[in-house]
Write a structure and sequence with these properties.
There is one protein chain. This protein is an all-alpha fold. It has one domain. It is elongated. The N and C termini lie far apart (46 Å).
Amino acid sequence: MAACSPHGRVHSNLVLAASSALVFGLTWRLAPGYLPANPGLEYFLKIMMVANVGLALFNLLPVPPLDGSRVVEGLLPQKLLGSWQRVLALGPLLLIAVVFFGARLISGPTHYVIGLLERFILGVALIGT
């Protein structure tokens, strides 16, 4: 059960990113001139997508106290839990390292997911055309 608990937070970030993409695509489809006339809204929706995808992926890193460490803990065989507990003790130091170097770890996956959202936006915007 521990492996399932963090998914709510990760899912909420992904739902917010997808919702922002949906609003972007629908606005582009139903009111084509609205986003160019309101660059603040366009910027906000893009930031919502990028920030929430980044947060979801960052949260999945297997570093204590991030949610990914709970996923790992839930998936590890019982015989490896002792070793994992020693890694958990290093959590604060590992988290500091991730804060400084984490962007490099998640930049590739973030760009991939943003690319998927861009295709989703185009799909929504071009429905029926």
